[in-house]
């Protein structure tokens, strides 16, 4: 397996532990996910999430997230991934279309 496609844990920066702790302290160990009305969840947590799911470990792309929101986000991302894959299939043409 090429290095690039290995799981995220192995790609975390060497100072990840310190980074993670700084994010948790910044967010006061409370979930930063906002609902549709823009209100933060603020559930106590010690999990840190990448806001945009990529390898950007900048503090701006990291937030504290509760277990419920983390699970929901992971599921949504998996679903989005499946949809993206489905979109790359050639569109099925109507048998009568020219
Ligand atoms: Zn939450």
UniProtKB/TrEMBL annotation:
Residues 74-98 are annotated as: Disordered. InterPro entries: HNH_nuc. Residues 81-92 have a biased composition (Basic residues). GO terms for molecular function: endonuclease activity. It comes from the Bacteria. Keywords: Endonuclease, Hydrolase, Nuclease. Gene3D superfamilies: 1.10.30.50. This is 5-methylcytosine-specific restriction endonuclease McrA.
